[in-house]
Design a protein that fits this description.
about 100 residues; alpha+beta; 3-stranded antiparallel β-sheet
Length: about 100
Amino acid sequence: MLNELIKSGVQDSVVGGILLKGYQMSTYKLYLKHPHIYTLIEISNISSFRNMESMTLLPSILRSLIQLKKRTSDKANRISATYSPPLWYISTATYNLRKRPDISK
């Protein structure tokens, strides 16, 4: 998605993402400032609710989603945005990330 925004000429391109892993929710933003170096920043990491008793977590979950929207849209809505990376910054390579096995066990 980020590559497509850059190819389309969007200034200060930033992409937001949400990762749900079990009952944990993390929000991220991704941008490109240097050739082939994508910067992924974790914005928040919170627990989601498991049952009706943990519905009290809903405000913090909504706050994290609003924060993700704000951090990505603030950059997109700036009128004075001037940075647009050259197309040669974009990487077409794909990688698979996996966790190293814990050798201490």
